[in-house]
Write a structure and sequence with these properties.
globular, 11 helices, 78% helix
Length: 217
Amino acid sequence: MKMQPFFSDLVIRTDEARRAFENHPVVLDAVANGMSLERYRKFLLELYQVVWHFNPVSAAAASRIPDTHRQVRYYLYDHMQDESGHEEWVLNDLEAVGVAPDDTRAWRPGVDTLALCGYNYWSADRGNPCSVLGMMYVLEVIASVYAGPFATAIKESLLLEGERGTSFVASHATMDTVHMASLRTVLNTLNDTASRSAIVESTLVNFGLFTRVFESV
């Protein structure tokens, strides 16, 4: 029996986790009303950790991907280039809202952020390295769908001008819409059950833990 394109299958199998994120009261309130300055600072501090670890996790996965899935390895190489240095954007946004770079770098992330990053490293190092595509799917769904309204709400609630303090979130609303198209293409090249199952698991875990990160701030 011919397998259906994986992107569609992934969307269907993880839709409940996506809806749990988007319907969470904390997420709904933040997208509609923004955040207090204290909460937004904490959100960016946790986000800085996620963004900082994105490329190292991707590199760890790329180093273990076999030639049978070389198209995924090449995709990761290109994507890492696109994401290089983006943690500096978060650093700049934090400085714009009153958090010094040294304080950002010294911040100890919360347990949910540690669990999120730790799971993704574990999957890349010890599990199926294609699982990294689940992490990417979650982050790009969240950014492409929710980052725009969230950035607007933050600007209005904190009276920020232009992209000052929201450059990372605002820019990824558009950027990750483009990234989603290329991610869809590479996901549809995967026909083996092991890789598909690993990506589904990763997507469920990342949606769940990112929801908890959002909730914790």
